[in-house]
Amino acid sequence: MSELKVTCDPGDVGFDPARLRRIDAHLARYVDDGRLPGWLVLVSRRGEIAHLSAYGSRDVATGAPVETGTLFRIYSMSKPVTSVAAMILYEEGALDLDDPVSRFIPSFRDLRVHEGGTAAAPITRPVREPVRVRHLLTHTAGLAYGFQHVHVVDEIYRQAGFNRGMPKGLDLAQTADRLGELPLLFEPGTQWNYSVATDVLGRVVEVASGRPFAAFLAERIFEPLGMTDTGFRVGREHAERLATLYSLVPGDGMVPLDMGDLAFVPPLAPSGGGGLISTAHDYHRFLQMLLRGGELDGVRLLGPRTVSYMTRNHLPGGADLQEFGRPVFAEVSYAGMGFGLGFGVLLDAVKAGLLSSEGEYSWGGAASTAFWVDPKEELSVLFLTQLLPSNAYPLRAALRRLVHQALVE
């Protein structure tokens, strides 16, 4: 477990220390009145950690506190990691963004688009445009998530075993093949829909690299960056460090979820879209690598132009998610927010209702975790907790406000 601590006087990097303390005072109320179990916040500017605080419990029943070494399920904050893995291979020429996914997953060769009917008797037609690697990175492939209850295709996914995880008993190759049998929501490239696309991308990484997906992440991202506590499982010797996952249940409040041995057993199909467990130290290093243009402490994962390309809006015509996306659950506001290659990208802070900088890129996880990177202000912010669902409280917008009001330089 690597050490994590404040590395500068906040004033030296443009923060008012008294204003920074407002972050803790605001978020502490969520723990004190039982809305959150506990949390950790890390604010960094110009490569220095200006604010680091933890409050509350990683397990309410035992009173074990949130600590800097606490392990958190980061769920969809896995997506940027998988996207970086794909772009490493893109830089090396192992894949191209316009490659049909069927080059790596043959079952994607004969995809069909849903046009009507029921889940039991869907009406479909052949796709006109193949699903390409860039469609997976931008969530414009036409894939879905079974836990969404919006469209008939969502129901078809649930019937195929895709609800809040992967179908049991299938490895990553078999999981991708099963997805290739299901109808698409729309013609690839014509809309945005939050989906299992990044899980499919994990299989593409596996095939393109010739390495098991989990091994590729470990060898090419985690080990080079010193992310020693990040992976798809937790060693049992670290079980006490793993935060308990809670769910907000109407009428009952915050209820702990029994996850069994799920975190301690290597998954058959590691989820590039939502399977990683990490710490503040590790994910902070990942964010610093991005903020520094793909390099950290002499280790370069990506070129700076690649990171810049990934973190621009890739939606057609400069559209935002409100214009181009389907109105379903996601980890960010739709208004004023575009989407790059694995990240939400802030296009219009006023339209989004966020006190933030245009060009900021971000994402979050199902258990209310979040991060953003602001290249203009040389800023990265990380928030970790363990509460489902992620939209229970306006934590992300409030945290942006609290960080930016403290930035006075």
Record the SSE blueprint.
Elements: H1 17-32, E1 38-45, E2 48-59, E3 64-65, E4 72-73, H2 78-92, E5 112-117, E6 122-126, H3 133-138, H4 152-159, H5 172-179, H6 197-209, H7 213-225, E7 246-249, E8 253-256, E9 277-278, H8 280-291, E10 295-296, E11 299-300, H9 304-310, H10 321-324, E12 337-339, E13 344-346, H11 349-352, E14 361-364, E15 370-374, E16 379-384, E17 387-388, H12 395-405
Parallel strand pairs: 7-17
Antiparallel strand pairs: 1-2, 1-16, 2-3, 4-9, 5-6, 7-8, 10-11, 12-13, 13-14, 14-15, 15-16
Short note summarizing the structure:
With 409 residues, this protein is of the alpha+beta class. The chain has twelve helices and 17 strands.
- Estimate the global geometry from the Cα principal axes: globular
Terminal-residue CA separation: 34 Å
- Tell me the series of helices and strands, N- to C-terminal: HEEEEHEEHHHHHEEEHEEHHEEHEEEEH
Strand content: 15-25%
Unreliable stretches covering 5 or more consecutive residues? none
Q: Structural class, judged by helices and strands?
A: alpha+beta
Describe the protein's architecture and organization.
The protein has 409 residues and is an alpha+beta fold. It contains twelve helices and 17 strands. The strands form five sheets. It has an eight-stranded antiparallel beta sheet. The protein has a three-stranded mixed beta sheet with strand order 8-7-17, with no helix packed on it. A two-stranded antiparallel sheet has the order 4-9. The chain is globular. This is CubicO group peptidase, beta-lactamase class C family.
Describe the structure using short key phrases.
409 residues; 12 helices; 17 strands; Beta-lactam/transpept-like; CubicO group peptidase, beta-lactamase class C family; Beta-lactam-related
